Automatic annotation (TrEMBL):
This is Non-ribosomal peptide synthetase. GO terms for cellular component: cytosol. GO terms for biological process: amino acid activation for nonribosomal peptide biosynthetic process; secondary metabolite biosynthetic process. The lineage of its organism: Bacteria, Bacillati, Actinomycetota, Actinomycetes, Kitasatosporales. Residues 1-196 form the AMP-dependent synthetase/ligase domain. It holds the Pfam family AMP-binding. One of its GO terms (molecular function) is phosphopantetheine binding. It comes from the Bacteria. It comes from Streptomyces hygroscopicus subsp. hygroscopicus. SUPFAM superfamilies: Acetyl-CoA synthetase-like (SSF56801).
Length: 241
């Protein structure tokens, strides 16, 4: 996907704001450079006068070495996929270890299960857990669910749209659906990219104009969700699954 500089900057500052990246923070870059999430991990700490700890993939392959790296370098901000976070929590519990410098943990890339959220707050009751949802086509994450405790709903909501972005639940005709009705998650705003390079047919299938705010662009994610009465967005799965 071809994304714009504006979308990248918007996402970068959304991460800084919602994760509370501060001057002097150490932010862990855990994603390889070929993944979109590596961009905010690499730059956000530096923009705030902090440091970036580049965690090599061979370190991540050994969870004990990875925990050592976070602890020894005083990492305050990190992001992991849920399955790896499960492994980290299990290892910390087995070895009776802590991450005293950690101030916020974000998760991305997979559906976040409520049981993992429970385990997180059992181990780190004062450290927020942020459920990040998004796609490369919308400059990475479009939603941040910042949690300070176990959510009341049976599933973990996706959280609020990030700054300068809008998230809709729509039918096939791009009509808004009411609360409780499942539909496609559609994302609009400055975050939306231009489309796929040299692939106009694929671009036309999922990128279009926002009927509610023309001429702004929107992106049809292919994910299904619904609005909860609480105003939160629930993820229901992929359209093609």
């Amino acid at each position: 996907a071809m994304c714009e500089h504006d979308g990248f900057l918007n996402h970068l500052y959304a991460k800084i704001e919602d994760l509370g990246v501060q001057e002097g923070d150490v932010v862990a870059q855990t994603a390889p450079q070929c993944f979109d999430i590596s961009l905010w991990q690499l730059v956000s700490g530096l923009l705030m006068g902090g440091r970036t700890l580049i965690v090599e993939q061979d370190v991540i392959m050994d969870v004990h070495t990875f925990i050592d790296a976070l602890a020894e370098n005083g990492v305050q901000v990190a992001q992991l996929v849920p399955t790896y976070l499960e492994l980290v929590l299990s290892t910390l519990a087995e070895e009776h270890r802590e991450l005293p410098g950690l101030r916020v943990m974000a998760v991305t890339g997979e559906a976040l299960k409520k049981e993992l959220v429970r385990r997180w707050f059992d181990a780190f009751p004062t450290v927020p857990l942020v459920n990040c949802y998004g796609l490369t086509e919308v400059s990475d994450d479009s939603n941040h669910g910042v949690m300070h405790a176990l959510p009341a709903h049976r599933s973990v909501p996706l959280g609020d749209p990030v700054r300068n972005s809008r998230v809709y639940v729509m039918d096939e005709r791009l009509q808004l659906l009411p609360v409780g009705f499942p539909g496609e998650i559609v994302i609009a705003g400055v975050c939306v990219g231009r489309g796929y390079v040299n692939d106009p047919e694929r671009t036309a299938a999922v990128f279009g104009r926002d009927p509610l705010r023309p001429p702004e662009r929107l992106y049809r994610s292919g994910d299904f969700g619904r609005w909860l009465p609480s105003g939160e967005l629930e993820y229901l799965g992929r359209r093609d699954s």
